[in-house]
Amino acid sequence: MAFSTLPLSYCTNVHPGRTVEEVVQGVSQYTAKVRQRLDLPIAAGLWLPASAIAEIKESPDRLELLAQTLWQHDLCCYTLNAFPYGDFHSDRVKEQVYLPDWTSSDRVRYTRDCAAVLAQLLPEGGEGSISTVPLGGRMNPSGPEFHATCFRNLIQVGRYLSELKKETGRTIRLAVEPEPMCEMSSITQDTVPQFRALYEMADALGCEEVIRHYVGLCFDVCHQAVVFENVAGSIDELTDAGIRINKIHITNALELINPADNPEGRDALRNYVEPRYLHQTYARMGNGEILNRTDLLAEDIDKEPADRFLKAEAWRIHFHVPVFADKLGPLNTTRGDLKAALRKVRTLDYSPHLEVETYTWPVMPGDEEPDLADQITQELHSAVKLLSDLS
């Protein structure tokens, strides 16, 4: 089957958007420029944090302002990023990005409100998607009923989306996004089993068909590459389990080959240590064993070459790097995995939403302040070409 006929989306979480005014400013200052420079239809994959959603609920004219801004710049919006609930541009985000988790009524309320907003941005009969946290981060505390509570809340939202379709005629699907070191991380080891448990609970409640239709996955290629998955095999496994992929994040991770014997690569990697985002780091050993660290830390890079973690065949780091790059100096990217994943997505009998999500430009190494619109334009141009080459 062909890729989605919808315009390629890029996620606006790269711009501050704590208020509707900031979201509008980001769309006008960057997304509109990218649309002009690319000279192709594109979509704004909006990130609307809880603060902006609350503003829209209190003053519906704020949603009209946002809709008018999109229309004036010949942009559409069919997908929202409801993963970061709070300020994604604070000095330190790290593990806080997974809070509130799916045990929280705040997460439920926020996701429902995002769906209601998206329903008003979609055309009549349109289909939308909302990406969200993978239940929670394993580095954050959780109770004994964590998974059962998450599943009940996901079912509640799935039922709400079904009712929203009846009320508005718009189909909006939730896309749970696995991420390294989260409750859903590996497709094989935890994501598929968790979804099976979710569907079993839904079956007991008489709504399995509804939940399968409205609650699926966001497959972020960077995330699955970081944990050294065979990304094409993971997509096959999801298909075999009847788990719908509602959204694909077109993303690359960072890779360091033979860290112990690669001082130049380690020197380059030190430039990617930064205080805002969490950069889970995985190491594949010669015997196939996978080790991990919660974050990319200078002390891990600086360890003696005899250190076990340093003696790995390769490190992969959760740092979203440009999709147009195969290499960044002495470092590799996982662009090969991206191509393999998209090639496999091309064979699905439905079309997931496609979105470029490179939010790390503000923390990327470099002495000069880059032109963000130029970078995003290059990123989308590369993604469009990649999709075209695979079609």
Question: Can you offer a commentary on this structure?
Answer:
This protein has 391 residues and is an alpha/beta fold. It has a single domain (8-252, 334-390), classed as TIM Barrel. 42% of the residues lie in helices and 17% in strands. It has 13 helices and 14 strands. Helix 2 (50-58) packs across helix 4 and helix 6 packs across helix 7. The model has no long low-confidence stretch (mean pLDDT 96).
Instruction: Quickly count the helices.
Output: 13
List the uncertain runs: none
Radius of gyration, taken over Cα atoms and rounded to an integer in Å: 20 Å
Structural class: alpha/beta
Secondary-structure element order, as H and E? Answer: EHEHHEHEHEHHEHHEEHEEHEEEHEH
Strand content: 15-25%
Record the SSE blueprint.
Layout: E1 8-11, H1 20-38, E2 42-47, H2 50-58, H3 61-72, E3 79-81, H4 105-121, E4 127-132, H5 146-168, E5 171-176, H6 187-204, H7 208-214, E6 215-220, H8 221-226, H9 231-240, E7 245-250, E8 252-257, H10 263-270, E9 281-284, E10 290-293, H11 298-301, E11 314-321, E12 327-328, E13 331-333, H12 335-345, E14 353-356, H13 372-390
Parallel strand pairs: 1-2, 1-14, 2-3, 3-4, 4-5, 5-6, 6-7, 7-14
Antiparallel strand pairs: 8-11, 8-13, 9-10, 9-11, 12-13
Helix pairs in contact: 1-3, 1-13, 2-4, 4-5, 5-6, 5-7, 6-7, 9-12
